[in-house]
Amino acid sequence: MNPPASLNLGIIGNCSISALVDDQARIVWCCYPRYDSDPIFHALLDSADGLKPDGSWQICLEGQQRSEQAYEPNTGVLRTRLFDAEGGAVEITDFAPRYLLHGRPFRPLTLVRRVRALSGAPRVRVVLRPRCDWGATLPTVTRGSDHIRYVGPESTLRLTTNAPITYVIDETAFTLTQRLSFILGPDEALQAAIEDTARLLEEHTIGHWRAWTRALAVPLEWQDAVIRAAITLKMCLYEDTGAIVAAMTTSIPEAPGSQRNWDYRFCWIRDAFFVVRALNSLSEVDTMEDYLRWLRDAIGDMAGGHVQPLYGIGLEHELVERELPHLSGYRGHPPVRVGNQAYEHFQFDVYGNIVLGAAQAFHDTRLLRQGTRQEFGLMEAVGEQAFAIHDHPDAGMWELRTRSAVHTSSVLMNWAACDRLAKIAQAFELADRAALWRQRADLIRDKILTQAWSERRQAYAATFGGDELDASVLLMVEVGLIDPHDPRFVATVDALEAALCDGPYMRRYEAPDDFGRPETAFNICAFWRINALARIGRTAQAREIFEAMLASRNPLGLLSEDTHPATGELWGNFPQTYSMVGIVNAAVRLSAPWDSRI
């Protein structure tokens, strides 16, 4: 029987491509040549009967009994060790090369696997079965003296290796007597010896990630968790355009059998803002500068003032949603969806997220390219739209597909747009513009504080005039609309905890949606709760919940979108930027200061 699929996965990547590797050293997911492309390895989404070799890349150890896995500290290089019953052991090192070359980032469309014996006389088998057209098409296989070519309808992959080519093609077991390297990428010949090339790529990539993490302004406590989260968030940047994807996968269901299976391999302006803000808090501003390139282009052609909540990583506007019935889905939970209908939605928090994502560029003098007066004018155009629609019904940040309302979270972000524009205008000494945007912000704030309050629930509600509760109102303190000690906000936290929390976990909302009542907890909501508790002075409770959320991560320190409160199992797309952002934010908020120890 095939072994089961799970989200005990590690991510490797270089801001051009990425791959997911499970704890048995199987690459089970990799879209190529972009994060939102057809996957060359898709086994994760065709696993009704366990994880199949088709659409995966496995390094199999004969007689394997156990495995262990860890990242090389402070890097994106993953090492998996497999042990057999006879004392044999092998180590597989996986990474996507990334470092500076000739003064610019070198991030080829290449995956590197290095295999070495640790003990005994282990026998291994290489099972490399890339697929095309979402698993429907087998590539044509050709061979050379040190390489294998996989020729698909649209592109050709080349595996260059010092392993016996015949054994790789035939999937024959052989004794591992020397270090082997496998370099999979474009159909281009190497310019140097295979082993020398792989070794140098590994050394330079480790050096790059260690230099990058060394520059982070990490908090004193939970440093390992923060560094792993930061590296993961960085890998979700598509550096060619500056887009930030919400997750690397599609169609991992939010809960078993729920059909809440969505494609997250695109750039949501909302999610990207949270990623930028989290990395900024660690003094990593390069990601923000890259993202602002993409954002300027995204809003440069606002049609009638409208901005979509998400775009393709190459600024594609139409992300037509379709289902792939030939794939069984993650653990047999279909459908597998490609594309996302949310691009058609009106989600009015997007305007606030645009301004929030760009705001630091107008105040941070470290940046190579600070925000200009001309760009402030572009942000003002966004703000005009935010003010014009600030109390109009929309689909909300949870992307409801069958109904609309005036969502408190959307109005809140439109307030944030006006508030930040007032502060930017003040920085440019534009007194008239600052006064205008402050007046508009104050007007929206008054509406939120009066119309979102539910007297019956003694809490700020999900919608204006409504009574249903929604964790997103916790963002009121996150973006600075309300004093955290305001009695109404404190009462809101209490009401949300009573209605939405299962121990440390927190659901998004209590009302049924298009698919009924949510079964799993939404991880970012737990981190919003932690932040709110810390701000109102319940620090001990916040720390307890944070430790519980850290314990719910997979063994490599990664989180998906959702956690099942009963089983503790991860569900939803993976790794989820929202969730990894929460780790960074909570650690920064709760950590003891450095000067308490040094």
Automatic annotation (TrEMBL):
<feature type="domain" description="Trehalase-like N-terminal">
    <location>
        <begin position="10"/>
        <end position="170"/>
    </location>
</feature>
<protein>
    <submittedName>
        <fullName>Glycoside hydrolase family 15 protein</fullName>
    </submittedName>
</protein>
<feature type="domain" description="GH15-like">
    <location>
        <begin position="224"/>
        <end position="587"/>
    </location>
</feature>
<dbReference type="InterPro" id="IPR012341">
    <property type="entry name" value="6hp_glycosidase-like_sf"/>
</dbReference>
<dbReference type="InterPro" id="IPR045582">
    <property type="entry name" value="Trehalase-like_N"/>
</dbReference>
<dbReference type="Pfam" id="PF19291">
    <property type="entry name" value="TREH_N"/>
</dbReference>
<dbReference type="GO" id="GO:0016787">
    <property type="term" value="F:hydrolase activity"/>
</dbReference>
<keyword id="KW-0378">Hydrolase</keyword>
<dbReference type="Pfam" id="PF00723">
    <property type="entry name" value="Glyco_hydro_15"/>
</dbReference>
<dbReference type="InterPro" id="IPR011613">
    <property type="entry name" value="GH15-like"/>
</dbReference>
<dbReference type="InterPro" id="IPR008928">
    <property type="entry name" value="6-hairpin_glycosidase_sf"/>
</dbReference>
